[in-house]
Design brief:
The complex is a heterodimer of chains A (294) and B (236). By secondary structure, chain A is mainly alpha-helical. Chain A has ten helices and four strands; from the N terminus they run ββααααββαααααα. In chain A, the strands form two sheets. Chain A has a two-stranded antiparallel ribbon with strand order 1-2. In chain A, strands 3-4 form a two-stranded antiparallel ribbon. In chain A, a hairpin with a 2-residue loop joins strand 1 and strand 2. The N and C termini of chain A lie far apart (48 Å). Chain B is of the alpha/beta class and 236 residues long. Chain B starts with a helix and ends with a helix. The chains are: A mainly alpha (294), B alpha/beta (236). At the A-B interface, helix 6 of A face helix 3 of B.
């Protein structure tokens, strides 16, 4: 079967690939949105922490014999703890200041973290094996479904929905939403807001590390992997708007698919399509598709 | 036995917003179960006094004792947990939360707070609007919500900033009834009020502020004899 002269197999394959990339965008932009909401920090080292997550998995496997599944749990915890140290020691000093200071500091941190990893590991990619349980593929009749790709989409969706549930439906989430509006007042009600801010930053970067581990078997693990993806993720954030949790998830997945489809129709444009969309959104709806107008 | 009854004692309180020195040595005290009103013109430092009590100003010095405990260096959440409920002038209703979520937001700071049903009994409007977005409520309903949510927490000291400001007379009456009910239940209340006619019949004692200082303090029974002074300071 062909659609527009292109085999349906190719369409479906690219849609799935797009969904997988979109899953990474969604998890990463979700972390950025959560952090920006409460901390007012544009977390430019998000890509570096995503890379750190992947390296945690790789180092764990090669030096400590820690497998994929444990890494999926441990790497976010390690990176989250590291993030909380950064928040307590550095970011905390910037909350009263303009966004630009947070952006500069986190950008600088990203350069330092990346530089350190380049120094020790070079820029060549390191391979990471697909865990045995997720190897292979299923023939669905109309297409072949690689198990690992399906897993990435499912796991990302699950973690995104869990995050959404915590923020929208739990008591902790109502503190977070209220804190995003007026942190001082929430603290005056007796909530330990400084601790909540540390935990939120930790959770936001733990999401990045989770994405890093998920990505490890399908990309080359290299110190540059963070800066490669973070620019696209910021485009996703601009398109979706900073305000909404579901918005980040939907935009991430949607743009991943659009990018995938562009690869089928006009491959040359696949690297720029997101930025074209970003420019259009900025012209027509500057607060983003799901953003709240200020 | 006066020492035991005193639940708030402020001495030489100085407060700053950035470079500007706003409070210049505020002194006052509040007994348990009293309703005390801070009177004064706009900019005399009444709101800043309440914010300082909660630890919400940039820098402060002097002494604030709550039930005998010094809190001048405590973080806001620790002050709240001593049983202090704060209703800010701008009401601080959260737009991303429904009316009921706003009501449930402040965590319990002490046992013995009102139940949701009791809050709804005091402010029936809130029950009808439970599912509405917090900021979709009318000004009066938002004010009831801002007061109702700190009654749930078990706080026994209430700091209420300009609660009657800009509200219709019928709403002000509801608030008046609510404050009387709370007073009867033994709550300690510090009111900051512009509306002298709202505050006058409620308060046990008054303080008058001017230029970041307390310039006068008197009992409700002396109100008559102080009217000319109040007229001069407040234009009432």
């Amino acid at each position: 079967m062909e659609v527009f002269g292109i085999p349906a197999q190719a369409w479906l394959g690219q849609i799935l690939l797009g969904l997988m990339n979109g899953s990474f965008y969604a998890v990463l932009s979700l972390g950025l949105a959560v952090i920006f909401g409460l901390l007012n920090i544009i977390n430019f080292n998000h890509g570096a922490l995503y890379m750190l997550g992947a390296f945690c998995a790789w180092l764990g496997l090669n030096y400590l014999n820690i497998g994929y599944w444990w890494s999926l749990l441990l790497a976010p915890l390690v990176v989250g703890a590291f993030g909380m140290v950064l928040e307590r020691t550095l970011l905390r000093r910037l909350y009263e200041l303009d966004h630009i200071y947070g952006l500069l500091l986190t950008f600088g941190l990203a350069l330092i973290i990346e530089g350190l990893f380049r120094h020790f590991f070079g820029v060549a990619g390191q391979p990471y094996p697909v865990p045995e349980a997720l190897m292979g593929a299923t023939d669905l009749g109309f297409m072949v479904l690689p198990t690992y790709r399906a897993w990435v989409v499912a796991a990302s969706l699950a973690i995104c929905l869990l995050t959404w549930f915590i923020i929208e439906k739990t008591r902790l989430g109502s503190y977070l939403r209220a804190g995003t509006e007026n942190a001082k007042l929430v603290q005056a009600f007796g909530v330990n807001v400084p601790l909540m801010i540390s935990l939120t930053y930790g959770a936001g970067v733990a999401l990045a590390a989770f994405a890093g581990v998920l990505a490890a078997p399908v990309i080359q693990i290299s110190p540059l992997m963070g800066s490669n993806i973070i620019i696209v993720v910021f485009a996703v954030v601009v398109i979706g708007g900073m305000g909404s949790i579901l918005g980040s998830i939907m935009t991430g997945l949607g743009l991943g698919v659009i990018e995938g489809l562009t690869k089928v129709v006009y491959p040359e444009a696949s690297a720029t399509i997101l930025f074209v969309i970003m420019a259009l959104v900025l012209l027509l709806r500057p607060a983003g598709l799901f953003g709240r107008e200020a | 036995m006066v020492e035991i009854k005193e639940c708030l004692r402020v001495r030489d309180l100085q407060a700053y917003y950035g470079e500007s020195h706003v409070l210049h040595g505020v002194d006052f005290h509040v007994q348990r179960g009293e309703v005390v009103t801070l009177l004064g013109r706009n900019g005399s430092g009444r709101t800043t006094t309440l914010r300082s009590l909660m630890g919400l100003v940039g820098r402060r010095s002097g002494s604030i004792r709550i039930d005998g405990k010094e809190v001048i260096d405590l973080a806001p959440h620790k002050i709240a947990r001593l049983g202090v409920g704060y209703c800010p002038e701008e009401r601080g209703i959260f737009s991303s939360l429904s009316c009921e979520e706003n009501l449930l937001l402040p965590p319990e700071v002490a046992p013995g707070g009102m139940s949701i049903a009791q809050v709804y009994q005091l402010f029936p409007n809130l029950q009808e609007r439970a599912a509405s977005q917090g900021t979709r409520l009318s000004g009066g309903e938002q004010q009831m919500l801002a007061i109702g949510r700190i009654l749930r927490t078990g706080a026994r000291i209430l700091l209420l900033d300009e609660i009657s400001e800009g509200l219709a007379p019928v709403i002000v009456q509801t608030l008046d009834r609510a404050i009387r009910a709370l007073k009867q239940q033994g709550y300690t209340i510090v009111l900051v009020e512009q509306n002298f006619h709202f505050a006058a019949p409620l308060a046990d004692r008054f303080y008058v502020m001017e230029h970041g200082q307390i310039v006068e303090g008197f009992e409700a029974r002396d109100l008559e004899s102080k009217m000319s002074m109040l007229h001069e300071f407040l234009g009432v």
